[in-house]
Amino acid sequence: MQENKCPFALDTLGRDLHGEAARLRAEGPVQVELPGRVRAWSLNSYESIKQVLSDPRVTKNARNHWPAFINGEIAPDWEMISWIAMDNMVTAYGKNHVRLRRLVGKAFSPRRTESLRPRVIELTDELLDGMATAGPGEIVDLREKFAYPLPARLVADLIGMSETARARTAKVIDMMVDTTVTPEQAQAVLAGWRSAMLELIEEKRRNPGEDITSDLIAARDEDGSALSEQELTDTIFAILGAGSETTINFLDNAVTALLTHPEQLDLVLSGQRSWDDVTDEVLRTESPLAHLPLRYAVEDVEVDGVVIPKGDPILVNYSAVGRDPALHGSDADVFDISRPDKEHLSFGHGPHYCLGAGVARLIAETGLSRLFARFPDLSLGVPPEELQPLPTFIMNGHRTLPVRLTKVPAAV
Question: GO MF annotations for this entry (predicted)?
Answer without folding.
Answer: heme binding; iron ion binding; monooxygenase activity; oxidoreductase activity, acting on paired donors, with incorporation or reduction of molecular oxygen
